[in-house]
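Q: What would this chain look like folded?
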Amino acid sequence: MHILLVTSYFEPDQGAAAVRLSRLARLLQARGHQITVLTTLPNYPHGRILDGYRGKFQVVENRDGVRVIQTWLWATRSPKISRRLVSQLSFMFTAALRGLFIPRPDVVLIESQPVFTSLAGVLLSRLKRAPYVLNVSDFWPEYLLAVGALSASSPLYRIFYWLVNVTFRGARRIVTLLHSLAENIEGRIGQGEKITTIYNAVDLRRFRPGLDTTSFRQQHGASGDEKWVSFIGTFGTHMDFETMLDVAAHFNDRQDVRFVLIGTGGQRDRVEQRLTQPDLSRVRWIGWIDHADMPLAWNASHITFWAVHDHPLYRSILQSKTYEAMACGTPVVIAVEGITADLMRRSEAGVTVPFKDKAGLIAAITRLLDDEDFHRRCSQSGRAYAEQNFDADRVAERYEAVLLDAAGQG
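A: My prediction, written as structure tokens:
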């Protein structure tokens, strides 16, 4: 089966979506399918096209047998919605143009966000008379309301909502990463029979406990036996860095503890400014690291923590970093409510507290720092749950079944 994957996120881009889709493409290729990827020139998360790709309209690469066609877009690191929309529109046009010259696939798999990527994929699906499967990983355009970019009464928001529903209705099948997404889509368009939920996965061979992190820690300035309490991921607008940094400040006098921020994103400037304050002298920001080093980052972390802003939408979202942390046996402490809190209770991989509960975060981190038995139980429970539920090969098998069914080959 020839599968055309249309996405804005693919390696060598970094971030959860690029990792997830690159892994899926390789696994489907290994199962005997021909995979062609139509994506952007690499630019995420830094907002600029990488050296070696800049100044080109397209670059075609072979990655582990997967043909990857990368086309130009206007890249920007600005958090302003107007600039991001221009960037997304630019890829829609170049992807649609370049996609015309791709041989007809049996099925098109489209990563649904941003919506303009969806539209390019839907257009190519129609022109090539091939059915498409929509892969939905986020609530959109509802996310624009959550971050305050648009209001529900905005004409632009209503247009986005209508466009997204059009892509939903035209899909032969829809895959969602969460049951809450499936329920949302069914509530919007009905057609529940064509919606399948397939949870995210992690490479359990790479992401595992017990890795030697000596060189990694030395490279990033670790001293002695200090315990890292890390945040690893994108500095997105949904993250409550005010709460997180206030919690870190509470531990500023503990010489055995180092808070480490690994990542970058829209709140980078705000975080950098806050880190100049003396009460955060034991917080180190080491920027973005290559995904190949991510298992080492998780293993180097005694605990990982984060806080999410209080919004109804965030109760229905499970962040990808959770999977990797659990697979590496890194106990998790999160200020969040909803499905992530439910997962932590089921897996016993860590502790969740209500939104903005600084005292609760401090107490949970302190317990995991000082109670070795509790830390060991959370670590072992997280890894065991990941082995039972997050196997990447099983996820690829389920995607394969959906794609074969959509192509009429199931």
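The longest strand covers residues 34-40.
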